User: Which sequence fits this backbone?
């Protein structure tokens, strides 16, 4: 196409200043969901600092409020309080529990509600969520005695849950999924007898860490922590939770700090759960100038500040074994790969 008389001339983009200072990234969504859920079934008050005020955690909060849980407004830079009702204090709602577009909300709610004997619940969501498979949760729950019904044999929403007495058992999950595992652990809290969940590979362990911090009788063993046992009877107690920054969001700042000349960045309060830190392992392989400062544990989760400074990057490679700890960071690593020496 030929240029016309009205075409403007190209604009010159000048390089910006240095990239330095301290930043915070949004709170981890997985931990935000679990903070609300575990706080709701604990006894006493749970405070949550840094909860991600996104649509998915808001859907979890709305479902819990519909079952009688008092949760303060969720807004940016505000501390959220959850008044726990105890393990068996959730009320039968007068309305359908709307999970919005949140698969995490629906899957974890299935586990939470399956053992609420004598109460009936209906879970639904938007058109997209109605197409997403829930059978990988409802089917293993059925082996504990759960009554979950819906389209395609309880695989598609809307889903009706008739709360009943569950029995502890041994469950081998067909896939390594933190959501499936977490739903089973929630159901196990009120089952009769111990429940043992065995994964084919290790998945994110936020639920195990946080449930123990809240007081659950939970044991992790086996190769790579793939065997999780829950014994019912323990009382969960409200906690003060600081939701760490999402390491997937921090990855963009880390790569920027490694690439921009003169950069010196510190990303504060980043979650360092070992099931999520594949990005740090790859950056170390690239010989990026990164260090972890102020390591600490908050509600069972390891947290720290990440400092990154500019420097040359080496080529890197990784295989499928690291993908469960890295999958969200692959796009930004592709950018970094363009600048390796």
Assistant:
């Amino acid at each position: 196409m030929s240029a016309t008389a009205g075409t403007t001339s190209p604009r010159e983009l000048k390089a910006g200043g240095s990239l330095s200072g301290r930043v915070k990234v949004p709170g981890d969504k997985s931990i935000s969901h679990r903070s609300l859920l575990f706080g709701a079934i604990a006894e006493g008050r749970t405070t949550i600092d840094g909860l991600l005020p996104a649509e998915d955690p808001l859907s979890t909060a709305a479902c819990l409020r519909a079952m009688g849980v008092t949760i303060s407004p969720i807004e940016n830079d505000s501390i959220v309080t959850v008044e726990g009702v105890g393990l068996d204090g959730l009320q039968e709602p007068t309305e359908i529990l709307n999970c919005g577009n949140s698969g995490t909300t629906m899957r974890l709610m299935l586990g939470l509600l399956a053992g609420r004997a004598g109460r009936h619940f209906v879970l639904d969501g938007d058109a997209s969520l109605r197409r997403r498979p829930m059978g990988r949760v409802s089917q293993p729950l059925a082996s504990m005695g759960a009554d979950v019904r819906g389209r395609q044999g309880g695989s598609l929403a809307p889903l009706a849950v008739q709360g009943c007495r569950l029995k502890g058992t041994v469950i081998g999950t067909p896939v390594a999924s933190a959501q499936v595992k977490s739903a089973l652990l929630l159901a196990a809290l009120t089952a009769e007898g111990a429940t043992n969940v065995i994964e084919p590979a290790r998945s994110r362990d936020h639920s195990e860490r946080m449930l123990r911090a809240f007081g659950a009788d939970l044991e992790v063993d086996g190769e790579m922590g793939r065997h999780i046992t829950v014994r019912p009877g323990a009382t969960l107690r409200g906690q003060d939770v600081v939701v760490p920054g999402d390491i997937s969001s921090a990855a963009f700042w880390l790569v920027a700090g490694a690439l921009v000349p003169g950069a010196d960045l510190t990303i504060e309060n980043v979650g360092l759960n070992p099931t999520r830190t594949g990005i740090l392992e790859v950056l170390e392989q690239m010989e990026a100038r990164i260090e972890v400062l102020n390591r600490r544990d908050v509600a069972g989760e390891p947290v720290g500040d990440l400092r990154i400074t500019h420097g040359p990057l080496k080529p890197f490679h990784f295989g499928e074994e690291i993908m469960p700890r890295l999958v969200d960071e692959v796009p930004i690593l592709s950018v970094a790969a363009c600048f390796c020496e």
In short: Residues 29-41 form the longest helix (13 residues). The chain has a mean pLDDT of 93.
